[in-house]
Amino acid sequence: MESAVVPSIRAMADADSSFVDLAALHELCRLRSTLEGFAAVRLRDHARRQEVLEGFSQRLEKMQAWARQGRLLEFRQEDVELHRSLVASCASEALMHCWEHVNARLEAWIQHVQEVYWPSLMTLYREHEFLIQAWASDEPWVAEAATHQHLEAGWFRVAAARGEASPVMDPVERATSFLCTHYASAVEVGWLAQNVSFVSASHLTRCFRQKLGVSPYAFLRQVRMERAAQLLKTSADAVAVIALKTGYKNVSHFVRDFREKYAMTPKRYRDG
To answer: What pTM was computed for the model?
Structure first.
């Protein structure tokens, strides 16, 4: 795995200064996330959805290989093609044209952020892994929210690295937002702390306990249980399927946590 030496704040500011209007670039990034968010929502009803998702997985495998070799250029090319294929899945010429225009305007800035502000390509790969898992969700809001979070991540990294204060930089707020979207994924507290909240795992855990009275993992389990309860009442999915959709690979662990939360089994909750 390659590593990147984080430059000084002064050096980063000097490098960023070559981009004349960062506010305008940020607005363009938000426009791109809106376009991609629309495509991610439409994906659920795509006639060949599984085929499209398999294509994403194939690109992700290539990105992992390039990340392990530290090949930023090749990684970046595959990254762009991944996002382009998402938009192309809508089969809308107008949407594609708009996305291509916005992407061209953002290309240099995104490459700059990836080179300067990400600690490693494997970290960036991991964020794409979470993104594709969200795109595969049956919940349109999950796919849309994850798309916005993914494309805003670079801006949060810039702000965190330069020590810029902002209400949205609150570590607990950032972590809970991420966990509420990616509850079906395997999220490690250490990774969450370092790459979403930009603090140490111990500091994030302490902040969670002070603000919410629970640890990050306990919060994630609570989100999973609440979502599972909704699915049990609103869908005909088997308990095993609901367990998988809420982040559990082991059904017995799911049943154990559900009984602890609701004092009954998932089946009894559904029938009650």
So the answer is: 0.87
